[in-house]
């Protein structure tokens, strides 16, 4: 069998196995993500596996660079990827995406034993956000909030403006003339 036929068969198998599984996500026909652990679990992590053109004869690309894994230290991520690479070496030449996901699920506690949910990075991020938010929020609220006009107000506005939505030149000159006339009467 060629690599493409193997990939097509494995893709079909993955779709049928993980149908309805919220942890599994197909990013493309050759790239998949699987969340190991429940949402909200501090020891949960996301694995992304991408197939190369010659997969399964060559190893897939394993990544843990997803935003979901931001709280995990790079040393723990590298350790998990290294352990998964060892499983890849054992299964080279066979369809292994399902095997790798299951291996990660079975060894989740072992993978995450050195992971310490860090309170300080989260705190510092929230502090940065709270410090920046008050400055940014008022200006964004002013931009987002638009005055709601009634139909009659919209018609009046449309009558006062040209086809581009701009008022004609000299639209406020009348007021200047009125002011100069009232001012001259006061002077007399």
Structure description:
This protein has 188 residues and is an alpha+beta fold. It has a domain at 3-112: Ubiquitin Conjugating Enzyme, CATH 3.10.110.10. It has helices at 3-17, 74-91, 97-106, 108-111, 119-144, 151-160, 173-187; strands at 24-28, 31-36, 45-50, 61-63. It has a 4-stranded antiparallel beta sheet with strand order 1-2-3-4, covered by helices on one side. The N and C termini lie far apart (105 Å). This is RWD domain-containing protein 4 isoform X4. Residues 156-169 have a biased composition (Basic and acidic residues). InterPro entries: RWD_dom (IPR006575), RWDD4 (IPR042770), UBQ-conjugating_enzyme/RWD (IPR016135). It comes from Phyllostomus discolor.
Summarize the structure in short.
Residues 156-169 have a biased composition (Basic and acidic residues). The chain is α+β, with helices and mostly antiparallel strands and 188 residues long. The protein has helices at 3-17, 74-91, 97-106, 108-111, 119-144, 151-160, 173-187, and strands spanning 24-28, 31-36, 45-50, 61-63.
CATH-derived architecture of the domain at 3-112: Roll
Rounded to the nearest angstrom, the radius of gyration is 31 Å
Tally of individual helices: 7
How are helices and strands ordered from N to C? HEEEEHHHHHH
Number of strands: 4
Distance between the termini: 105 Å
CATH top level label of the domain at 3-112: Alpha Beta
Mean pLDDT: 76
Biased composition (Basic and acidic residues): 156-169
Protein name: RWD domain-containing protein 4 isoform X4
Region (Disordered): 132-172
Pfam families: RWD (PF05773)
């Amino acid at each position: 069998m060629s690599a493409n036929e193997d990939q097509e068969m494995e893709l079909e198998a993955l779709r049928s196995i993980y149908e309805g599984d919220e942890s599994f996500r197909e990013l493309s026909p050759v790239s998949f993500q699987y969340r190991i652990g429940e949402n909200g679990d501090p020891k949960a992590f996301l694995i992304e596996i991408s197939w190369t053109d010659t997969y399964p004869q060559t190893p897939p690309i394993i990544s843990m660079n997803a935003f979901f894994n931001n709280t995990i230290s790079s040393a723990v991520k590298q350790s998990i990827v290294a352990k998964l690479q060892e499983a890849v070496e054992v299964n080279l030449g066979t369809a292994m995406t399902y095997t790798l996901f299951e291996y990660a699920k079975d060894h989740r506690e072992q993978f995450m034993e050195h992971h310490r949910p860090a309170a300080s990075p989260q705190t510092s991020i929230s502090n940065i956000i709270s410090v920046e938010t008050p400055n940014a929020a008022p200006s964004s609220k002013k931009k987002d909030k638009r005055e709601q006009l009634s139909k009659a107000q919209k018609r009046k506005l449309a009558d006062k403006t040209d086809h581009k939505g701009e008022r004609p030149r000299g639209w406020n000159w009348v007021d200047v003339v009125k002011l100069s006339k009232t001012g001259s009467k006061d002077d007399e």
